[in-house]
Amino acid sequence: MRRFVLLTLVLVLKGTGLLAQNEHVLDSVLLNEVVTYAPYKKYQAGAKLESIPSAQIEIGQSAGLDQLLTRFTPIYFKSNAGGLSTIRVRGTAPDHTSVNFGGININSLTLGHSDFSRVPVYLFDGVDLQYGSSSAVNGSGAIGGAVFLGLKSNWTEGARIKATISQGSFGEQLYGTKIYVGNGKLESVTRLYYFMLKNDFSFTRPSDGLEFDQQNAMIENMGVIQEVNYKFSSKEWWKTAIWLENDWHQVQALMSSHPESVPNETLDNKHIRAWSEYENREHPLQYKGGIGFVHDMQVYDANEVQKIGTNRLIAEFEAKQDVHAGFGYKFGAKYKYIKPDVYAYSSDVIENEQSAAFYLSSFYTPLTTLKLSLNLRQEIVSNFSVPFTPSFGAEYRLLLTNVAVLKLTGNLASSYRIPTFNDRFWPEVGNPDLNPEKGMNYELGLQYEYCSSFLQSNLKVNGFYMDVKDWIEWRPGSIGWEPENRSRVISRGVEVQANNDFDFRKVNLNFRVNYSFNPTEIKEDQILDLVGKELIYVPKHVGNAYLMAKQGAWSTFVNVGYTGKRLADHSGSAKYPDGTVLDGYTLMDFGLAKDFKVKEQNFKLSLAVNNLPDKDYQNQPDYAMWRRNFRLTLSSDLNFNKYK
Amino acid sequence: MKKLLKLLPFFLAAIALFSSCSDDETEDLFPSELTQGAYIVNYGGYEKATSSITKYDYEADKITEFYYQLQNDYAEITSAPQFAYNYEDRIYLMNNAPDNVVVLDPLFVAQDTLTTMVVKPRSCVGYGDYLYISCWGPNPDWVDLPNSYLLKYNVISGAVEKLALPGGPEDLQIANGKLYAALNYKQAIAVMDLSTEEFSYISTPAVSTSLVKDKKGNLYVALISSYKHTATQTGLGFIDTNSDELTVYELDNVSTSYASTLAISKDQSEIYVVAASYDAEWNMVGGVKVFDIASKNFKASNLVSDITGINGVSVNPVNGDIYVFISNGSTTKGNMQIFNAEGNKTNEKTVGAAPALAIFLD
Question: Of the candidates A530, A571, A575, which has its C-beta nearest B44's C-beta?
Answer without folding.
Answer: A571
